[in-house]
Amino acid sequence: MAEIKLVPRGKIGITVEAEVIRPDLIAGKTKEQIEELLVWQGPKELPLSQFFEVDIQGNGGSPEETKIIIDGDVSRVKRIGQGMNSGMIEILGPAGMYTGAEMTGGKILVRGDAGSWSGMELKGGLLQISGNAGDHVGSAYRGSWRGMTGGQIIIQGDARSQLGGGLAGGSITVEGNVENFCAIRQAGGLLIIKGNAVRGLGAEMSGGTVVILGEVKNFSPGFVHQGIEINPKIGEIELEGRFARFMGDYAVGKNPKGMLYSRMAQEVGE
Amino acid sequence: MAANSTKTMIIKNGYLFDPLNAIDGEVKDIFIREGKVVSSLSGPEAKDATVIDARGKTVMPGGVDAHSHVAGTKVNAGRLMRPEDHYKSVRKKTDITHSGSGYTVPSVYKQGYDYAAMGYTTVFEAAMPPLEARHTHEEMRATPILDMGAYMVFGNNWFVMRYLKDGDIEKAAAYVAWMMRTHKAYGIKCVNPAGVENWGWAKNVKGLDEPNIHFEVTSREIIRGLAEVNELLGLPMSLHLHANNLGHPGNWETARDSLMITSSLEPNSKTELEWAQTRESAKRKQTVYLAHAQFNSYGGSSWRDFCSGAPDLAKYINQTENVVIDSGSVPFGPATTMTGDGPAQHDLYMLTGQKWSNCDIEMECGSGVLSLMYLKSSPVHATMWAIGLEVLLLIDDPWKTIMTTDHPNGGLFSQYPQVIAWLMSRKARDDTAKECHKWAYDKSSLGGVDREMSLYDIAILTRANSARTIGMAHRKGHLGAGADGDVTIYDIDPGDLNVNDPSYIVSRFSRPDLTIKDGQIVARKGEIVYVPEGRRYYCQPHMDEDVEKDMMRDVRDWFKYYTVGFANYPVPDKYLKNPVPIPVNMPMEAVVRR
Is A142 within 8 Å of B83 when comparing Cβ atoms? Predict the structure, then answer.
């Protein structure tokens, strides 16, 4: 088991793009080799050592046994863990945009907030955010309609807009509240929101499941009420309580298969 | 690398494939002086020349793309609506090149570099709406290396329809001539004639003899009329037709009937040009050039009994001498469809539910853009793949065919090498068919086709015939004395070529050893080493001044319906870099005066 510790050297001005911070890329490298990895800052390619102090504890060549600990505020560092397929990253502070985007395996723990587009088009693995998340987390890239296809995202705080846009597989759970157009164009997978949403929830949805325990301020108009379910089961997961079940979004499709469970909307059905 | 300042060059010992000079793989040296091919160099000239040893390699004239969508508003709309198309396809800047991005619809810089790196030096934009001519020229001006020109869309133009309804071919010709001069257009494009005008009322036309709304003119009348205008003016290129009923099952009959309309016309090119030497005739023989035949070679009556109609269409084309087609082949993968055929794009949107954009261009035409993915697993797409190869393989005379993907509609220009591999190798086709839905061979005749094209055939389909068909063979598509010094050297030894190794064909055609333009090396093994500015070709047809005066009165009268002022309508000269106007239909006294 090798533990690589990266400590940010003070404040970062122009944001840094550090997709090289990946256990599967760093595994088996020496301290010097890691320091020489190149990251982009604006138009310049600079060595990682310009921004981080590197320290290695233990050894172990395989990516699975490699853990990267980032000790500090990396909210101005983008793309940490982007595309990683194994190993683990633990960030002891806030993380920047695109954290864990397109990852296919392994684990990222963010002990703080995570920036927008984190977990974008996730294909596998786990991204856990203990603070709040920005916009477009777990969503498709701009212009694409196919977002996350596998893996799991857990957000312990709030998320903002377009969470899980184009979700096609895997699952996202938010303990707190979300804002607008979450699960937009969802085609599969599962999104669980334990708090409230503002509007556009499940807009243009064609498949998959959204569960919301709190309130939706402006409910999407293209959803049709289908009945009340008590302790409904969604795959392996059993929800507790009375839920109103809706199907949609009929605003864009003739035969949509999107399911929306709402605990607060149950009165609608009665 | 800096420019070889002399533009003088000797390419030695290569196997030359130059179909317009009937040279089929002979070892032959090529001499270029000041950017032009010459039969020999003097002693002092030869001493200063750049010498390239092409021993064991395949040498062809620079590639000529006769039909591609690379400049204009619809291309830009494709870029704007597809950020996901640009995200992962990027090109780093170098000391001499710009950065760029885009996979199916690259940025203008990337397009220029990618074409040149693939051995193409000349590319024609296939659809320029008059109102968007400025934008088209702006993008062409920004495109590096390539020589370019654009065909202007006339098939649903109000003035053209009005004159053709009145049977006034002379006025129609005067209008077309004035428009081509005004907007610096090279040829006449006709897209779904009569149908796009109906699209303004959410309709299309069915069949060639349905009068359209208001103008009450039929597709047949427009095709016939524009082809007559084309030959009356004597344009270098024939009418370029995007036939009616495109993309619908059973449309091969529409295509055949459309091609028959011009069969009684004679090709009549009246240009004042210096012609480089060729063994074969470099003048076009066709009176109609059908665009992307694949999209118009469908059999069946619905998507359920959909099948190839290519054998039937090919049978007709094999019997006639006045038709050239380009294929619009479908090599699978992401594409962005873009066409002036608004109703066809709407049908495609209803079929796929993909991102779609649509536009009506005032009194002139329409347009639509849609993002699409061609899948081997899709029965229809697999059949389209087969049809896109059938139209090239079933037409016996290669001089009636041009290889394209209708970039980026059927596929991308960067996939040409893949299409070449399928044309040259039966095994390549069989291998792909195995990965496809069974309709690929079940619903087409491709599985029974043994023909494997030679390098000579490929040279016809990718440079010689494309240049001849569009009337550019006076300087492009061959290496006779006087031709432009555009040469592509592929790392292929014709003696050793094993067509059962398709990946070899793909890699060698993707990255030629050298692309030479006007006697200067522009790309080496895919890397851009020199970035010259290309030329912009357009026609300046002359027409009787009295007819033109009459016609201009009509134009001024109807111009009140336009959203632009008359003074802002023309494309100013400053929009063109290195313009090359081609005088057409000059009166005798003007020719004598010169």
Answer: yes
